[in-house]
């Protein structure tokens, strides 16, 4: 009980000094809890939506996906004859059955030809209005669609794009462009996570999405009273046979949830990873805080020992303080985490994914995880300072000798640090010299971890050397004040090393990712220059967007073009000469001019020959695995057609970056074995301009495709810029998440300086008494902060560039061979670190300057 009282007294006596450590715990716990609450809420939202929109049993056409996606490579949804509806209605246990038609292979535009698709990545769905949708949507304005000239739109899409009754809507798909006027607006009665939905009447949907009436994509089946979904499914299968996909409501919901879960899991674990980094940085802050508090209470600890307190009691007293800190920070962090989750929901709403706070889900595991993490991390971080406090002998403490300086432990620490750093460097070398990227990934990961830990352990040794060098370069110009700042930073190398290491972690990751991202852009740009021989690349806004035949005709009719190359993806199974069957392979069908558009290196044969009749190419790795040579025959069973026996005319190099591991056939060859109505649409189209007409052809192409806003025309400059922008956006998002760790590191610098000022109160009073001005004192503290921040930046940037350069060596094995160090970014981060140091010193320097000289000198 006495130990508890002492701990409570000390905790509240130093509550101001504990505050920044508590904030670090709060931020880290809040990020973890916010991530968990946000992803749980999204899961709840999608669960409710999928359960509400699924009928008891759904019958889908053969070829549709488990999630009910009504799309295909032909641009038309898979369908089944209308006779299926009668057969389903005749099945035992069916109360009601209704045929519907839906497609996600449609681009919807307004009268300005602006796309009405969601910005969140959710699908655009065009389909027939039916009673199943009426269960989850209410017509709040106008009427349901009747006839070919009417369409109904969901309220969220109408609000976002300012759509009103009577507005003209264009729906572009493989069958052309269908125009209709908005007859009604329907509002979801459940949360809509962001899909844009447009409804037609059934006959119009059949004609405009499939091209003929008398077919359906789905049949929604409602069970009679007392009939379970499982029984109903069995009865429907008995009536139809096994030629269709039949799923219960739970199976459809589970399949949809599975596809959503894969996206949510990536986001969840990525965000938790960054929260873990923030926790790691926070550990240094907590260690420094308790180390300095223990040092400042040396005499007090000595008195406690002198009157009978044991080492265990002193140790326990410090750990109880850490426990209190962890509990306070974690409880506040759990509450802040809910606020972060609500903020993320609002942010998602701004990009089109609507999440209602009515579905806010706080599972009991979330606060439990947050509290446990916060408390455990805090107590573990305080263990070393607590153990050091327990070692203080009463006599040494009463003489104010301070905590014992263990030279032996410092030597051991340095040796361990050097050993870990050396082992990490060797692992990075092993990764850089690996023959295969897969073989080098494990050594790379091990090298990153070992060098990081090694630098943390060896931090005090590095601080002693680097700070002296930085002092000569940065501080000596400020005269005596600069030299005092240097000595203050060197006074406790362990503390300086820990403070710098906190900043080092975040900046190391920033530098590593910057090097990798910049190298990827430089390598891809280099490959484009060497490999791509076409002037224009025409493709959809995303990988699922197909190019309609109308758009292809418009491209071919564009003046100023010397050639146009179509490019399709064909699903097939391959039987190789060794008798092995390779299922679910993708064969790329293109016009013969593709060999000019993309110059791919071959190790055998001529790629142009692969586009001859009954010919193909394979890639080097596949050829080696199956003993294929030029002249070998491969049986290619096209998924939607017959089996062809094609002669291998070329083997492409595995060093290719663009279209790596590809197999090619000509479109003419594929067309012999796949019926025209099952032939996939183009994924891309390449076009070459006539000599001297590039600018005019570029402008003409854009004009020709103006009516197809889902398709983008790019020249090589556009393509390179987009590639750079995409990687830049990804890096910016990662930098934003890493900002949490850097904020915690800045708090660490602030706390270290603040406690250091308290620790040196008498010294500061004496310096002021002998003539040091307030301005000089503040400058000294600011310079000390800057040199610590720059020290951490040097370690982080150096370490990160080493990691990035090693990672690039592995990327080189995949064809990305250019190492590009983004010096503007590295320089900007380095300069920014100096400003971080200045910012962190503002409050400690201000407080030091306000000290009363006499009171400071009299401080015990």
Helix residue percentage: 55-70%
Q: What portion of the residues fall into strands of 2 or more residues?
A: 15-25%
Calculate the mean pLDDT score and round it: 85
**Terminal-residue CA separation:** 28 Å
Shape, principal axes of CA atoms: globular
Number of domains: 5
Topology, number of strands: 24
> So how many helices?
28
Category by helix and strand content: alpha+beta
* Estimated radius of gyration: 34 Å
Main pleated-sheet profile = 10 strands, mixed
Uncertain runs are: 401-405
Region (Disordered): 59-82
Domain ABC3 transporter permease C-terminal: 274-394, 737-852
Membrane topology: Multi-pass membrane protein
GO molecular function, one term: transmembrane transporter activity
